[in-house]
Amino acid sequence: MTGSVGTWARKIAELFDAHRLRVERAIARRTGDPQTAGDLAQDAFLRLARLPDGEAIQNPAGLLYVVADRVALDHCRVAKRQRRREAGPPDEALPSSGPGADMVVERNQTMARLRGAIDSLPPKTRDVFLLYHVEGLSYRAIGERLGISPRTVEYHLRTALEQCRARMKRRPLR
Question: Where is the RNA polymerase sigma-70 region domain (predicted)?
Fold first, then answer.
């Protein structure tokens, strides 16, 4: 048993000599923190060394880079949580990055007007419009589905757009 532990320890030492600098660079790229990359690389080597059945690993160098990536990712998560904790709760006086209430109301009204414009289209024209703009079908596919020519599909789409534009230009009744 001590022979296999000694063999695994030698393998880790060889990995350390051969891959330490590359592992540190990989961690530094992942974390953006070259100062702690050395410590994190050592942590990756230690985690690999502590594996109970190290001799059974087919590709220890490959596993080393996976472990190093996980160590770097864990470090980034901890650092992010720490920054949030230090920043404290969000300030209610700060403006929200999302749209304001007036923008949301205006967008909802515009969408309602657009839905009304689409609903007011003749049935076949509305079907063509929805198949093209919602389902993303081609003129040919729409024509096959509705039993009309691609040229007729084009006509219905042009008509739908003209009627929707005209309706959207009108001011909503309040």
Answer: 15-81
